[in-house]
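Page 42, continued from yesterday. The earlier attempt failed because a stray header line got pasted into the input along with the sequence. Redoing it now with the clean sequence only.
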Amino acid sequence: MKKIYTMMLSMFFLFQINSGAIAEDKTILYAFDKDYPPFTFMENGKPVGFDIEVLAAALKDKNVNMEYKPLSWGDAQEALKQGKVHVTSGMAKKEDRKKIYDFSHEPYSDLKITIFTTKKSNIRNLKDLKDKKVTTQKDSLY
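This time it went through. Structure tokens are written below.
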């Protein structure tokens, strides 16, 4: 999976760099969710995680600088929408988002959504949530 992910991101960035999508100074502005481990998060004031490592590997030995923008997920989406950054990662492809953002053709991962309850709960699947109050991360992947 990591090899496929690396290859997909590498091809994306190489295309973007070679197509002139990045400014002449070749600095890529990458907004990411600062609280999305293990993919992207901050540790001791530095961006870390799977996506960070893959991007670094894809850009190794390229004449490109990566400028990291750790934000809340909602702010990262908005920064991309407004053109304040070049790229983000970890966004689910949905019809409404396809009208705003340019997605890769194939996703690099298939995330599973999990329901967490207490042991005493009768909720065992999605259907059990009907007419129940639930919580999710604001501006989440879905």
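Notes: DSSP finds four helices and five strands in the chain.
Reminder to self: strip header lines before submitting.
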